[in-house]
Design brief:
Elements: H1 3-15, H2 23-38, H3 43-49, H4 57-64, H5 69-72, H6 74-93, H7 96-112, H8 115-125, H9 132-141, H10 145-157
Helix pairs in contact: 1-2, 1-6, 2-3, 7-10, 8-9
């Protein structure tokens, strides 16, 4: 599913614990990954871009008074929470592009099939039927060859 993407995000979480942590360098690297995974306009990307340190003396004093700085660093904590949420999303829902492709295929099927055929396919896909592929292929075999040719052409040329 999204194993490579999840591995990249986990690597970025590990980088948050580096002794010589540089927020801007970390953000740049993370933004590259998130842009590729979720797109340039993703609010997830903007969340990382908005991470910054508050350099007011009170804020720094309260954050770093006693204990390890990285354990109490609010920016690192927030960054870790964001990436962990993104990992959970990818594990649960998969890659956003996969959803778009499935939606595109569904729309093309709805254009070429009757409402009854679409309902049959939906029921079949949502069932625990072991012979889904065979039954799905039966439904598609009953289509006129012209409709099947149009459907395949649209799938191949859709962007």
């Amino acid at each position: 599913m999204a194993e490579k993407e999840i591995a990249l995000l986990k690597e970025q979480i590990a980088r948050l614990d580096e002794k010589k942590f540089d927020l801007e360098a970390w953000k740049n690297r993370t933004e590259i990954f998130l842009e590729r995974i979720f797109g340039k306009e993703s609010p997830k990307l903007k969340m990382i871009q908005n991470l910054h340190y508050d350099y007011s003396s009170w804020s720094l004093r309260d954050t770093y008074a006693g204990g390890s700085a990285k354990d109490k660093d609010p920016v690192r904590i927030q960054a870790k929470e964001i990436l962990e949420a993104l990992i959970t999303e990818l594990e649960s829902l998969g890659l956003p592009q996969e959803k778009k492709e499935q939606q595109k295929i569904r729309e093309l099927l709805e254009d070429e099939l009757t409402g009854k055929q679409v309902k049959e396919i939906d029921i079949l896909l949502n069932s625990d039927e072991q012979e889904k592929i065979e039954k799905l292929s039966e439904i598609l075999q009953n289509l006129p060859k012209e409709n099947l040719a149009i459907l395949i052409s649209k799938l191949l040329t859709s962007q």
